[in-house]
Amino acid sequence: MAYRNPAPTVDIIVEMLDRPDRPIILIERMFEPLGWAIPGGFIDYGESAETAGKREAMEEIGLEIELVELLGVYSAPDRDPRQHTLSTVYIATATGTPKAGDDAKQAHVLNLWEIPKNLCFDHGKIVADYLKYRYYQQRPILGK
User: Fold this and answer.
1) What is a single Pfam family found in this protein's UniProt entry (predicted)?
2) How far apart are CA 123 and CA 79, in angstroms?
3) pLDDT for the residue 113
4) What is the CATH number of the domain that holds 35?
5) Is 102 within the bounds of a domain?
6) What pLDDT digit, counting tens, does each position of 65-79 carry?
7) How confident is the model at residue 63, as a pLDDT?
8) Considering its fold, how many domains does the chain have in total?
9) Which of 39, 54, 55, 123 could link 60 by a cystine bridge, Cβ 3.0 to 4.6 Å?
């Protein structure tokens, strides 16, 4: 019997420490699915989620990040239209000016009221969970 497992990914909510109100970075994707997303990507074989997060941040936004804490793990089978993925989501901090790279068409620092409503994947839910945690110290509810 052949096993099919979700592909491991990592996503990073990057707070900008050197800007008022600690805005976050979103990227505009260059490839399908098109749209705005949190920086992140697939974890390579033999790589930890933490290392993948730092690598993906450098590749997509050109910044070194400091991982601060784990926001949660998101694993809904339909979270990525391309295949079933399981994402470890971190909150991180950075300073500097993001520069789009790898599969990011653009990288923008956005205040929380500027965040587009229709984010790719399940990133709208992730950002909503982040905002509840940031402002109300409410952790995401498991399975919701």
Assistant:
1) NUDIX
2) 9
3) 87
4) 3.90.79.10
5) yes
6) 999 999 999 999 999
7) 98
8) 1
9) 39
Q: Is the whole-model pTM more than 0.85?
A: yes
Return the DSSP state at 39.
S
What the block records as the tokens of 1 is: 């019997």
What six digits make up the tokens of 47? 């790589």
Residue 90's Cβ-count burial label (10 Å; 0-12, 13-18, 19+) is: buried
Residues spanned by the domain of 48: 14-136
3-state secondary structure of 59: helix
Cα–Cα dist 11/94, whole Å: 15
Listed in sequence order, the residues at least 6 apart from 92 whose beta carbon sits closer than 8 Å to its beta carbon are 12, 13, 14, 15, 53, 57, 65, 66, 67, 68
Q: pLDDT tens digits, residue range 105-120?
A: 999 999 988 999 889 9
Q: Can you tell me the mean pLDDT for 49-62?
A: 98
DSSP 136: H
